[in-house]
Give the backbone structure.
Amino acid sequence: MAPTNIIAHELEGYGVRTFSAKEMAFNILGLMHPLLFSITQVEPIWADLNGGMDRFPDLADITTRIRTNLRKKADLCRAINIDSAADFKVINGVETERLLQTVDVLPRANFRFEFPPLESFESLSDVSQLRGLIDHENTIVVTGFGEAGPWGSSRTRWEMEARGEFTIEGCIEMAWMMGYIKHFDGRLQNGSLYVGWVDSKNGEPVDDKDVKGRYEKEILAHAGVRLIGQFISCNHQTCFIYQFFAEPELFRGYDPNKKIFNQEIELIHDLEPIEVSDVEAQKFKLQHDEKCDIWAGEDGQWFVKLKKGACVFVPKAFKFSRTVAGQVPTGWHAGRYGIPEDIIAQTDRATLWALTCTAEALISSGITDPYELYEHMHPSEVGTSIGSGMGGVTSLGKMFRDRREEREVQNDILQET
């Protein structure tokens, strides 16, 4: 019906009533009113929504004449514009003539991080009777929030949960967050000036409109609550292998298809001697006592021989049944949010998530400088609180497993747990 909208105005000049799509929907819904529905139980209701078109047997000829007149007017206006443009070009020059030039406008992302809208005082007049019932000095008001989760930030998660797909803005934020693109301001390899997004690998410019088609497949594969590792399904005839984008780097090498445990085994015969340092030799002797012999070699090296009855730990692995994890998007790095590398190296990932979320919550509240808070309240009234089920799990693993295996662990690892 859209092509007939252009003749609706002229057609109503003949005494015909036309309806828009919303008006016609309103008329049809009005016929479904319970009062009218009760009448239809007794007798039928006839609704004439023709708008008077049935009174014109030559309606087709009328609409044809209207379209013909509209085309003539359009051609006349086009000819006048061309003639006016030619006069303008002769008088002002070719470079100043822009009327008939085609301008291609590319879709651009429109990120909006505005301060939350505040209700006017007049709109709250109906709750004025509640004045005095609430102690404003002890009332908590949430003005902003931040999030770091499997779908990225709160904005990108809402897009996926509400629409089932990312907008241009959502794809750009996820692609930047996962390291596929980065912002560039300077000269490209060809020497031209450029400000915008570039591919992180090859440095080529990427338009906003191309981010969704270029990176969305990879973004969806490496974001959200997803499976880890490989799943192998076999029957008598065929064997299928499904790759679910194994990303053990997100969990310090953890792979559910190869979950490692250590089993204690008692030796039933003496082992061949192994070469160690003198300090390590004394440690072996301290643990195994008479079930271990140590001695120094001719060139200063030390040897350890574990004897029958000594206990050793042998690693073993099996396939774990839990392969689903709520992982942050692959490639998430706190450095993109401005956190220095020396802090990232010694801070647990849970703490880094909390830092970025805190900054995002302040920005969404309209606070770009946290010290602005101290202009309105005393420092003793400002604090932070982090709630977690386990705390810094990565640091917990370093404190217990890495120390047991004598790997290098930072001295202040306890504070990160």
Observations:
- Residues 230-246 have pLDDT under 50 and may be disordered.
